[in-house]
Design brief:
Elements (H helix, E strand, L loop, with lengths): L9 E4 L5 H11 L3 E6 L13 E2 L2 E2 L2 H4 L3 E5 L5 H12 L3 E4 L5 H5 L3 H7 L4 E6 L14 H7 L20 H23 L7 E5 H6 L3 H10 L16 E5 L5 E5 L3 H11 L13 H6 L1 H12 L4 H11 L3 E3 L3 H6 L1 H5 L3 E6 L3 E6 L23 H9 L3 H9 L4
Parallel strand pairs: 1-2, 1-6, 2-5, 6-7, 7-8
Antiparallel strand pairs: 3-4, 9-10, 10-11, 12-13
Helix pairs in contact: 1-7
Length: about 400
């Protein structure tokens, strides 16, 4: 049952792959009606992206949940006319074509506004709609490198490391959802508010999070080189190995936290040592500080260490595999993994709803739809087409 806070908001999701579609998913989780517009007979490229079980894509059910699938060819006039009819009855359009594509097809924002002056258009691309690189193809991994993120990660004696999954795409998706609700609020709650277009570059979503990098270079002329963990920010901090060989992450981001760690280790003398008594001097002695912690961590098992530092209020976590996550009681209690029905697999597990609203919680009303599953219903109910008109459109490969 749909009672989310965005109930009544209709979104046309013209986008493909991950970043923009993920933003639409987040909005759909909280009640928005999301109509995913896909190319007839082909659909979103994400449908063919791994992992798979047999021929069944396993990513699709969660990354397209709470959406309806409408097949529609936007290259031709018939498809564009149908799109304009849908725009008249929608609140938001989300697209991630290369800049200039909608304009080339004759359905740029100026045209869409003629159909609905209040429409909000959210545009995602690799480098944004403006600037000398706007025309370039944009994907998550190159955008991550362009943002400065990749430069920071890895070991100094080895090549830089890219994230092992599409991190920047998912972060950008959060910006898509944030942009959508912000633009809606402005349009509907502010006097004289109106629809507008929103321009998001993939690289910008990560770059926005690196104010430390900008400030350090601007004021100190420092080019931060790659290093593992949080070196340069907090000490001690990093990855440590326990007595039986498990790996944990431990960080003390404040002097008060380090005080608790020193007590937990039975090394209170460090609190009066000029090499360790503040974070600033510990950073100057980072390797020594980390080595003291590493030696102590090796004296305890993972469970002993976790319990002991939890009791002392020191932030620590085992480095979890997905198997650890499936077996963890906290994940279970928080419903971070939920099981939903699947027409061919029987059931499938996927991440739950985040965040948790007390009065208007989100919901999973359907998994990623089959290609064109809702085409006829949408064209009848929203566009007002008759069965014979739909049949003709299908024969002409418009839908």
């Amino acid at each position: 049952m749909n009672n989310g806070p965005l109930t009544g908001v209709r979104i046309l999701d013209l986008s493909t792959m991950i970043a923009a579609p993920f933003g639409a998913v987040l909005l759909g989780d909280f009640g928005a009606e999301v109509i995913k517009v896909e190319i007839p007979n082909r659909g979103d490229s994400l449908r063919n992206m791994g992992p798979f079980k047999g021929n069944e894509p396993l990513r699709w059910p969660a990354l397209a949940r709470n959406k309806k699938s409408l097949t529609l060819d936007l290259h031709g006039e018939e498809g564009q006319c149908i799109l304009k009819e849908l725009v008249k009855k929608s609140d938001i359009i989300i697209e991630n074509f290369r800049p200039g594509t909608l304009e080339k097809w004759g359905i740029g924002y100026d045209v869409l506004k003629e159909a609905n002056p209040d429409i909000i258009l959210i545009r995602v691309s690799g480098y944004g709609q403006t600037g000398p690189y706007a025309h370039k193809a944009g994907f998550g991994t190159p955008a991550t490198a362009f943002s400065g993120f990749t430069y920071l990660h890895g070991y100094s004696d080895r090549p830089p490391i890219s994230p092992s999954f599409s991190l920047v795409d998912y972060i950008t998706g959060i910006y898509v959802a944030f942009s959508a609700v912000t633009a809606l609020y402005y349009r509907d709650a502010i006097p004289n508010g109106k629809g507008q277009s929103v321009d998001i570059g993939l690289y910008e979503s990560v770059f926005r999070m690196m104010e430390f990098l900008v400030a350090d270079y601007d004021q100190n002329g420092l080019i931060k080189e790659r290093s593992p963990g949080l070196s340069g920010h907090s000490s001690p901090a990093g990855t440590f190995q326990t007595k039986e060989g498990h790996w944990v992450v431990l960080v003390t981001s404040s002097d008060r936290t380090f005080e608790r760690l020193a007590v937990a280790m039975g090394k209170e003398e460090m609190l009066n040592d000029e090499r360790f008594y503040t974070n600033k001097v510990r950073l100057e002695n980072f390797n020594l500080t980390n080595s003291i912690v590493a030696d102590w961590v090796k004296t305890l098992t993972r469970d002993e260490l976790q319990q002991h530092l939890d009791n002392h209020g020191v932030p620590i976590s085992a480095i979890y595999s997905i198997e650890d996550i499936f077996n963890d009681e906290h994940y279970r209690e928080r419903e971070n993994i939920v099981q939903v029905e699947h027409p061919r697999l029987g059931s499938i597990k996927m991440p739950g709803i985040v965040p948790k609203f007390s009065e208007t919680p989100g919901s999973i009303r359907n998994i990623g739809p089959d290609l064109g599953e809702h085409t006829d219903t949408i064209l009848k109910e929203l566009v007002g087409l008759k069965d014979e008109e739909i049949i003709k459109l299908r024969e002409n490969n418009v839908i």
